[in-house]
Design brief:
Number of domains: 2
Strand order of the largest sheet: 5-6-7-3-8-9
Helix content: 25-40%
Structural class: alpha/beta
Largest sheet: 6 strands, mixed
Distance between the termini: 41 Å
C-alpha cells in the first residue's frame, strides 16, 4: 500500500500552510521533504500522523498503531531512562515481555546506545537523544515512519548513525518520510519534495529534478540582477528562468541548493506579478 496525501490543503486561521499538496510514500523507500522556514514541512508530516485536520484533500496513512513518529522535539521523556522510554513506547504499541525486550535491545545495539540503557534521557547528548527518539518511533515496527528533522543540531557521527538506521528501516520495507534541513541528506532519498509557502515547487528523484530543472544558473563576482542572485562561497549565483544568460557569465551545474533557491525566487516573482 502506498501512503501519502492527495490535493491536501491546510489552513491555520488566515494562513494557508499547505495548498493542494500531493505526496506519495512507497513502502521500502525514503521521501525527503525540504524547504525554508514556513514552507509547510512540519504541517505535512503532522497531517500524515493525523495531528492536523485538513481543510480539503485526502490523507492515506495506516492506523496510529502502524505509524512511528519522531517530532521536531527530542521525542523522549527526560525523567525516564533509555530503557524506560523504550519500554513505555513499546507498551503503547502493544509489546510486552520477551518480545519487547528483544526489540528494545536490538534497536539500542543498532543505535550504539546499549551502554547508556540505564541513563536518564536528560543526561544524553543531543545526538544520543535523537537516536533514542528514533528507536522509540521504530519500536513497534511501523508500516509508516514519519521523522521531523531527525538530524538537525546533531553531531556528525550521530548524523551518520541516524541515516544508517533510516536506510535500514526502508530496506526492511518501512515507508519513510522525513523533513530535513540538510540538502546532502535529501539527495540520498529515493524521492525529493521541495516545498515553498505551502506549495510543491518540484518533486521526484534527485537526478530527475536536476535533469528537468528549467533555466540556467551563472556564477560571478557581481550579479546582473541582484534580486535573482544569492551568495555561494565567495561568488554569487544568479538564476535565469529563460535559460539565456549573458554570454560573459560563467554557467554552473545547479545542485540542490541552487535549485531550491532558484525555484523559490521564481515562485515569489510569479506571486508578486499577480498581485
Amino acid at each position: 500500500m502506498t501512503f501519502g496525501v492527495r490535493a491536501l490543503t491546510v489552513s491555520f486561521g488566515d494562513t494557508r500552510a499547505l495548498d493542494d499538496v500531493t505526496v506519495e510514500v512507497t513502502p521500502g523507500t525514503v521521501v525527503a521533504v525540504v524547504g525554508g522556514d514556513g514552507a509547510g514541512k512540519t504541517t505535512l508530516l503532522r497531517a500524515l500522523v493525523r495531528e492536523v485536520r485538513p481543510d480539503h484533500g485526502a490523507v492515506m496513512a495506516p492506523g496510529k498503531a502502524d505509524i512511528g513518529f519522531l517530532p521536531a522535539a527530542s521525542g523522549s521523556w527526560a525523567a525516564l531512562t533509555v530503557n524506560q522510554n523504550l519500554d513505555f513506547a513499546g507498551g503503547v504499541f502493544g509489546l510486552t515481555g520477551a518480545d519487547l525486550h528483544s526489540r528494545r535491545d536490538r534497536l539500542l545495539a543498532g543505535a550504539d546506545l546499549t551502554k547508556a540503557a540505564d541513563r536518564l534521557a536528560s543526561q544524553l547528548s543531543g545526538g544520543m537523544r535523537r537516536k533514542l527518539g528514533f528507536c522509540m518511533a521504530m519500536v513497534g515496527s511501523p508500516a509508516l515512519l514519519v521523522l521531523d528533522e531527525p538530524s538537525t543540531g546533531v553531531d556528525p557521527v550521530s548524523r551518520i548513525d541516524l541515516w544508517r538506521m533510516i536506510s535500514e528501516a526502508a530496506a526492511d520495507g518501512t515507508a519513510v518520510i522525513m523533513s530535513t534541513t540538510y540538502l546532502d541528506e535529501a539527495e540520498r532519498a529515493a524521492h525529493l519534495v521541495v516545498l515553498d509557502g505551502g506549495r510543491v515547487l518540484v518533486q521526484g528523484p534527485y537526478d530527475e529534478v536536476r535533469r528537468e530543472f528549467p533555466g540556467a544558473i551563472t556564477s560571478s563576482d557581481e550579479p546582473v540582477r541582484r534580486a535573482w542572485s544569492w551568495r555561494r562561497g565567495r561568488q554569487r549565483h544568479e538564476y535565469w528562468p529563460d535559460g539565456d544568460p549573458p554570454a560573459h557569465l560563467a554557467r554552473v551545474d545547479a545542485d540542490l541548493e541552487d535549485i531550491v533557491i532558484a525555484l523559490s525566487l521564481a515562485r515569489r516573482a510569479s506571486t508578486e506579478a499577480t498581485l
